[in-house]
Amino acid sequence: MNENLFHLMSQNFPADRSQTVIELGDGKSYSYADLEEISGRFARLLLDKGVVKGDRVAVQVEKSPENLFLYLATQRVGAVYLPLNTAYTLSEVSYFLGDAEPKVAVCRPQNEAEFSELAKKLGVAEVLTLGADGKGSLTAGAEGLDADVGCVESAPDDLAAILYTSGTTGRSKGAMLSHRNLGANTLTLRDYWGFTKDDVLLHALPIFHTHGLFVASHCVLLSGARMYFLPKFDADQAIALLPNCTAMMGVPTFYTRLLAHPGFTAEVCKNMRLFVSGSAPLLEETFKEFQERTGHTILERYGMTETCMNTSNPLDGERRGGTVGFPLPGVEVRVTDENGKVLGVNEIGVLEVKGPNVFSGYWRMPEKTAEEFRPDGFFITGDVSKIDERGYVHIVGRAKDLVICGGYNVYPKEIELVVDLLPGVGESAVIGVPHPDFGEAVVAVATKDGSNEISEEEVIAACKSQLANYKVPKRVYFVKELPRNTMGKVQKNQLRDEYKESFAA
Fold first, then answer.
1. What pLDDT digit, counting tens, does each position of 378-415 carry?
2. Phi first, then psi: what are they for 373, rounded to 5°?
């Protein structure tokens, strides 16, 4: 039996392939037949470029239907899809290409020269381009090719994708996700959230991470539904399209921006059946205000790059603000102390998960993989949590000082490594503080070593030159010394408390 993810999807496409799957903001649309045709031609081009089962295909391009079709083409040939955040700088991309060793890399046309030079140094055989308008050497090269490529047979544990997630040491880790991981999780979500062929999803998420690619897109494709496929979230456009939709998935920032818009009313949402929020904690105030304004209760869920979705508030039943609901069918969760002892009701510890959704490990990092799993197969998430008396899971903190800015994970150590090397900086500590729009904002607190005068503006400029924009500190504070405990560890909780009002109105 073919366990290939694309094979699973195609079994759930509508019998009438002329039905629309993607509609753009300008009215242009693509049918399921178009999806099969274009992804087939892209798959043929990949095969012609020498891509074979198990090869990696790295992609750093803007969101477009063709980008999604390229992802599907990669699955069809049995290759491993490696999406890269479009905000990554060339120096960041260099690490991913060197570590994953892709056979083919796809970049934006405007980046082709520098990307090709980098790819050549790192031994990447082929560089193709794809623009936000769907044009580039990828689409040009695939024009007229035979689309009848079928779908390579894949075993459940064959790799379908590698998604990089930063580590607290600053070194990114490639989470290896199999066809089983992605297929099982999305089938569960489709059924748990009640997706059918009659749904229309407002899709304004990027597709280089789990939420937009594996959750939103998969729910549509595995139910034969359709979606408005928008390049980014715009409140005006969302309000114009929501009356034609039945579901929306977003990060908390989407919901705060809707609530800040005077045109967002209950009438706008009259045809909606489901609003889902994830990728960052949803403030209870937002949860309640949304409920009062629209009559709809946002469904909050919890997932990770390494596991896709783990828990969800119920479709039918009480959705409790401040919680991420219950374990999904087939997923086990528990809360443990630092020694792995399972804790009781309302006791706070680290959440661990187990299920068909949990990844097999980190790419070429067996030691790190072994550290993150218990002997009985539970994955240690690093998220500080509790499970209440009714079984609802609460995420109460993050064990590794992770900052989530606008739905994107930011690991402080990566920014600290950049700031600490700047002339004039002694040492730094990077924290997340509340922000009205992004949920959390990155803030750097640093000491000066007296060797060179350095300003807040200079630190920010240096970070911008080396890091993706969402990782760049929005404020930099200079202090005489960083607060430490008796073991010499920087007390980031004190810093978060001291600077928590940085972005208060």
1. 999 999 899 999 999 998 866 667 888 998 878 788 89
2. -120, 140
Helices (H) and strands (E) in the chain, counts: 16, 25
Complete DSSP assignment for 62-99: ---HHHHHHHHHHHHTT-EEEE--TT--HHHHHHHHHH
CB 311 within 8 A of CB 335: no
The per-residue pLDDT for 168 is 43
Closest CA to 274 of 237, 313, 239: 313
* Cα 390 to Cα 395: distance, rounded to the nearest angstrom: 15
Q: Which residues contact 318 (CB under 8 A, 6 or more apart)?
A: none
Polymer length in residues for the chain: 505
Helix (H) or strand (E) segment spanning residue 485: none
Q: Would you give the distance in Å from CA 200 to the centre of its chain?
A: 21
Q: Which tokens hold the place of 253?
A: 């920032």
Q: Is 402 helix (H, G, I), strand (E, B) or coil?
A: coil
What is the tens place of the pLDDT at every residue in 215-268?
999 999 999 999 999 999 999 999 999 999 999 999 988 999 999 999 999 999
Beta-carbon contacts of residue 422 (< 8 Å; ≥ 6 apart)? 454, 458, 459, 462
Q: How far apart are CA 27 and CA 23, in angstroms?
A: 6
Q: Give the pLDDT confidence of 435-486 residue by residue, as tens digits.
A: 999 999 999 999 999 888 999 999 999 999 999 999 999 999 999 999 987 5
pLDDT of residue 166: 60
Helix axes 90-100, 112-121, angle to 10 degrees: 40
| Measured distance CA(341)–CA(352) in Å, rounded | 11
What does the radius of gyration of the chain's CA atoms come to, in whole angstroms?
A: 23
Rounded to 10 deg, the angle between the 65-76 and 32-48 helix axes is 60
Q: Are strands 403-405 and 159-165 parallel, antiparallel or unpaired?
A: unpaired
Spatial contact of 485 and 493, defined as CB atoms under 8 Å apart = no
Question: Which residues lie across from 383 on neighbouring strands?
Answer: 398
Find the angle CA(124)-CA(126)-CA(131) to the nearest 5 degrees.
115
The whole-model pTM stands at: 0.86
DSSP three-state, residue 361: strand
